[in-house]
């Protein structure tokens, strides 16, 4: 079928999901017009306020692989094989992510990834990209979008055939859908915010700066119960650290006002990190304190005319490292659905929504739950024993037992099915322990009886 007998797809947002979606749909035979609010980040530099690096794992890699983009993305990535836990006192502990030592998650640059996706989208003959143009809203009856030039502020209208909302957590496309009857919307903020800081590279033997100051093959965590700091490596030898802390209270951002407060806060709470953070005061002052939002909504699609992808459909907190991975998986599933029903986008979008909404809800909850695990439980001996038991079960009974983390991070099993399978496994393990306990009790009791007769 010729490209021109299919509707033109307008994608709003050329971030991670939008750019990949443009490539995917172009390769499925659609003409795609991609609109991005910001200037071209490859020229203007990356915008602040978002994480500098991201953890990429199997779901994201599979979606990139389908578009032959996994190799350029992974070329500059750093493999993190496990968590490097920094207790307040005592030695750092390494917790592998998987029973398979070759498995890990990859630290990649957000700006580098976005540039690779935009370069690839630009190479598609059926994709055009317009930067610096914001979607103000879409009239979903007439399918007229109002767009605004971000330099002149001039507004124009544009007729669209099909609209994909890839415009992030505060999506304008979703806002337009919200005005319709029976659109469910739930948004809530964490009591915690985050601030990015840096461990810069150290000098190597030849006097160049490029040496990692701490182990680059780990995702470092300083768990401190109600708050925590994490650090992910960058390919230039630095680490991007993120402090997650409550906005209010004793350990909160509001308690850190002066430079002395900053120094005291870090020296008391992260004493082994401070010597590696020579620019702590400047970074703390210069970098914003940002909030963490969760968005759940339904529906994600309107007939064959509109669909939401990525954070526009499901903004999640970053504690499972899955927001981007889930967004890329949206694109992979949307692509499958569209290829299955290219002449009936209504059916394609309905299937996409049915497959992805339960998955989106599941990862949204998992991400919230994992915050508690990262900031509190990972440091405890009980948690370490539980992880060891999980790894032992996975190694000993690979056909029967796969830890939840492994299913979420190293598989493409839909998130909600992974949660269900993990719960069933847990029940099985508890039942096995109860049976073992009963058996041991029976043997002891039988032995006692035998010897007392
Ligand atoms: P975005 O990346 O936000 O892209 C949306 C794009 O739309 C932007 O370019 C924006 O400028 C544009 N836009 C917005 N409004 C409009 C408009 N009205 N008109 C036109 N364009 C518009 N995920 C992971 O998988 N692993 C991680 O390790 C990880 N770490 C994270 C750490 C932090 C601190 C945060 C905040 C998030 C993290 N995430 C992580 C989540 C990840 O960043 C998001 O899930 C991902 O960026 C979603 O991609 P997206 O394209 O849907 O949205």
What this model shows, in words?
- About 40% of the residues lie in helices and about 25% in strands.
- With about 450 residues, the chain is α+β, with helices and mostly antiparallel strands.
- A hairpin with a 4-residue loop joins strand 16 and strand 17.
- About 40% of the residues are buried.
- The model has no long low-confidence stretch (mean pLDDT about 95).
- Flavin-adenine dinucleotide binds next to helix 1, strand 3, strand 9, helix 9 and helix 10.
Compose a concise summary of this entry:
This protein is α+β, with helices and mostly antiparallel strands and 453 residues long. The chain is 41% helix and 24% strand. The chain has helices at 16-27, 41-44, 58-66, 70-75, 110-123, 172-178, 259-269, 280-286, 311-314, 323-340, 345-375, 381-396, 404-410, 415-452; strands at residues 9-12, 32-35, 53-56, 78-80, 82-85, 93-96, 105-109, 127-130, 133-139, 144-149, 155-159, 162-165, 184-199, 202-203, 209-211, 218-223, 228-233, 239-246, 290-298, 301-302, 306-308.
Helix content: 40-55%
Give the strand tally: 21
Computed structural class: alpha+beta
Rg (CA only): 24 Å
Uncertain segments: none
The backbone outline, from C-alpha atoms, is globular
Ligand set? flavin-adenine dinucleotide
Beta strand %: 15-25%
Biggest sheet: strand arrangement: 6-5-16-17-18-13-19
Number of helices: 14
**Intertermini distance:** 87 Å
Average pLDDT number: 94
Query: How does the major sheet shape up?
Result: 7 strands, mixed
């Amino acid at each position: 079928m010729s490209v021109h007998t299919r509707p033109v797809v307008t994608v709003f947002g050329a971030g991670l999901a939008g750019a990949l979606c443009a490539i995917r749909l172009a390769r499925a035979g659609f003409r795609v017009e991609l609109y991005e609010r910001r200037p071209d980040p490859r020229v203007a530099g990356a915008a602040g306020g978002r994480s500098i690096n991201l953890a990429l794992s199997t779901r994201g890699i599979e979606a990139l692989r389908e578009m032959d983009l996994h190799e350029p993305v992974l070329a500059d990535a750093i493999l993190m094989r496990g968590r490097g836990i920094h207790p307040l006192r005592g030695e750092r502990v390494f917790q592998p992510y998987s029973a398979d030592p070759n498995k890990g998650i990859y630290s990649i640059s957000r700006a580098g990834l976005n540039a690779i996706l935009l370069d690839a989208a630009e190479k598609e003959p059926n994709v055009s990209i317009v930067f610096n143009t914001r979607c103000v809203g879409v009239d979903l009856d007439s399918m007229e979008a109002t767009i605004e030039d971000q330099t002149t502020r001039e507004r124009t209208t544009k007729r669209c055939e099909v609209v994909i909302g890839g415009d992030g957590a505060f999506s304008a496309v979703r806002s337009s859908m919200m005005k319709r009857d029976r659109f469910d919307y739930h948004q809530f903020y964490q009591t915690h915010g985050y601030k990015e800081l840096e461990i810069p590279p150290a000098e190597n033997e030849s006097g160049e700066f490029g040496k990692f100051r701490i182990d680059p093959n780990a995702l470092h965590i300083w768990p401190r119960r109600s708050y925590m700091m994490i650090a992910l490596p960058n390919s230039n030898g630095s680490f991007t650290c993120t402090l997650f802390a409550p906005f209010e209270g004793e350990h909160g951002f509001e308690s850190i006002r002066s430079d002395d407060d900053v120094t005291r806060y870090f020296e008391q709470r992260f004493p082994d990190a401070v010597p590696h953070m020579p620019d702590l005061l400047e970074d703390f002052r210069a970098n914003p304190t940002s909030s963490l939002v969760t968005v759940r909504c339904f529906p994600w699609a309107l007939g064959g005319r509109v669909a939401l992808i990525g954070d526009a459909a499901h903004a999640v907190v970053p504690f499972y490292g899955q927001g981007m991975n889930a967004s890329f998986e949206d694109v992979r599933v949307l692509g499958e659905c569209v290829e299955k029903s290219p002449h009936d986008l209504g059916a394609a979008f309905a299937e996409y929504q049915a497959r992805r909404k339960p998955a989106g809800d599941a990862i949204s909850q998992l991400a919230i739950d994992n915050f508690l695990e990262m900031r509190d439980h990972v440091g405890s001996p009980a948690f370490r024993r539980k992880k060891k038991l999980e790894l032992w079960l996975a190694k000993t009974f690979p056909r029967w037992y796969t830890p939840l983390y492994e299913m979420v991070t190293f598989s493409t099993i839909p998130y909600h099915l992974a949660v269900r399978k993990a719960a069933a496994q847990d029940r099985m393990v508890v039942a096995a322990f109860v049976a073992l306990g009963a058996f041991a009790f029976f043997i002891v009791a039988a032995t006692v009886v035998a010897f007392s007769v």
